[in-house]
Specification:
This protein is α+β, with helices and mostly antiparallel strands. About 60% of the residues lie in helices and about 10% in strands. Strands 1-3-2-4 form a 4-stranded antiparallel beta sheet. A hairpin with a 5-residue loop joins strand 2 (about 30-35) and strand 3 (about 45).
């Protein structure tokens, strides 16, 4: 599953965006296949594809999509905010209408996150209520975990800046090394 494809973002910043996807996927126990940032400023994080997520997984998986933008805000020294829900759904709809902009037909982070918060909202056992509440909770969790896992995101992003490509085992080893050093 491609978590994002970032174009027209400076390479270092794209690296932080993709590193956040990789770190969040790792912590969700979703195997990372590879993460790449090219000189053409294209970037993506590819993980194993889930057959079909359960509603209880929707919120956690949505945070993987949302993590990239949250990491960009933190890297740029900005307060981590989330997009208002109405604006988020418009952006997600635009991405979903034109999946050719993404890699391999992937529609984009917002469209992927919207699909997963919808799934979470349809979970009868959900404590978060409707879709807007699920989106707000996913944003809160993503922002919080970007802070918690920031050292891991930095290590992956810096290594991507150096070599441009990391496979899954390399990502896992770097993340685990940071965790051991705490």
């Amino acid at each position: 599953m491609i978590w994002s494809s970032t174009a027209n973002k400076p390479g270092l910043v794209s690296g932080y965006h993709e590193a956040a996807h990789a770190v969040f996927a790792y912590h969700a126990r979703l195997p990372v296949q590879h993460v790449v940032v090219t000189e053409e400023l294209e970037a993506m994080c590819v993980t194993s594809l889930l057959p079909k997520p359960y509603p209880r997984q929707g919120l956690e998986l949505a945070t993987i999509y949302l993590a990239g933008e949250h990491a960009l805000w933190k890297r740029c020294g900005q307060e981590i905010l989330h997009m208002p829900f109405n604006e988020f759904t418009v952006v997600a709809g635009t991405e979903a209408e034109d999946p050719a902009d993404g890699q391999g037909g992937h529609a984009g982070d917002h469209a992927g996150a919207l699909e997963l918060v919808r799934l979470a909202a349809n979970n009868p056992a959900s404590a978060w209520g409707g879709i807007e509440s699920c989106y707000q909770e996913a944003c809160r969790i993503a922002a919080s975990k970007v802070g918690i896992w920031w050292d891991e995101i930095i290590v992956i992003a810096e290594r991507l800046r150096e070599i441009g490509y990391l496979d899954g085992p390399e990502c896992a080893a770097l993340i685990e090394e940071v965790a051991r050093s705490r």
